[in-house]
Amino acid sequence: MPLIRGPRPIPLAGALLLAVLLMAATGLALPFRAGERLTFQISWGVIPAARVTLEVADPGEEGGEEAAYHFTLKAQTLPLIAWLYPYQERIDSWATAGLEHSLLYKKVQESRHPRDQVVRFDWQQGLARLTNYGKPAEPITLQPGTLDPLSALYYIRAQSLQGDFRLEQWVTDGKKLSRGLARSLQRETISIGGKSYQTIKIEPDMREVSGVFEKSPGAKMFIWLTDDERKLLVKLQSKVVVGSFVAELLADESRLPTDLAPKPK
What we know:
Layout: H1 13-20, E1 37-44, E2 47-57, E3 69-77, H2 79-82, E4 88-95, E5 102-110, E6 115-122, E7 127-132, E8 135-136, E9 140-141, H3 149-157, E10 166-167, E11 171-172, E12 177-178, E13 182-192, E14 195-204, E15 221-226, E16 233-240, E17 243-252
């Protein structure tokens, strides 16, 4: 069965994506459409540190004729943290209709280590071609079905996550092609902002993760997806090198067709 392990994590935004892009399963169902918009708050210990917004946008023309999905991620540190760690980021990803593979991936990062990266997935040559501020890097050889980190998030949600699962898949950010593991633990009811969610708790394997969100020795990371047709990420929790963090769903501002709109309880 397929399984995802993502490449080098994305600071702050990576707190949300890091574990999510480590997983996938079988049974594509596509529980999202253009108009979905989710906002998360990331807390470092007890301190609110950043806001992250995930959105499914209109594919437009930039991803090419094959593009059926355009995913965006926007992240920014909150004022209390920004004076110490100023950070702002936008990621855009285009993928095919069934999320068979990625087509284009862009990352603009404003921080002490700014980036302006574009990854073009050349499926005729089987290569991912990365440029940063227009300067090309060495191409990465693709494996069939390779996804970028942001598309991988939505690929997971498109799967059937019933029963126990243990998964694997290829992911690249244009610098490294990686594989990874994840396993389901149990179903849990959790409370976030006074709302209850029936969830699937999942543990990713993070042995190759490095950088600021590198897992501390002996620590574990867990994520929670809603156990329903939308499979929303609602929580992520871990202890990392710089301390403990929790990411929780702050607002669902989606404008969806009635068949995918949240159902009243």
